[in-house]
Amino acid sequence: DYKMKALDGQEVNLKDYQGKVVLIVNVASQCGLTPQYEGLQSLYEKYQDKGLVVLGVPCNQFGKQEPGTSKQIAEFCTSKYNVTFDMLEKVNVNGDAASPLYKHLTALDLQPKGSGQVSWNFEKFLIDRSGKAVARFKPQTSPDDAQLVASIEKLLDVK
Description:
Blueprint: E1 3-5, E2 11-13, E3 21-27, H1 36-47, E4 52-58, H2 70-81, E5 86-87, H3 100-107, E6 124-127, E7 133-137, H4 146-156
Parallel strand pairs: 3-4, 4-5
Antiparallel strand pairs: 1-2, 3-6, 6-7
């Protein structure tokens, strides 16, 4: 029951993703992990027909590595990485000003990472088809990591 805005300013009701498996990732354009966009796009392309949604959430809280406007972020993602998965407007993921979605996600004790603040760009939260957060992966976990892919495939097999 969270509402956020897409990069184009349109309201997005996260309830609209019910019935899908969602991978939520806080992203940044000027990070050493930014090339993960390529892997996230590949993951999305491989599994979207089975019900996977990748949701990119820009954040500028880590080393100020996402300074751009929504328009600049959209341009970067499409021109450099051909991103076609959904992207939301930039938010805070930690602290008092964190978005309500991230306040909820970081309070959960999800394995393999556990609870607590987001540690860096490209941390990943996996949400099942019913809308329940079921796993959390460290930023360094690549999109093609065997454990991450197995977790996604297992959730996609549940109808």
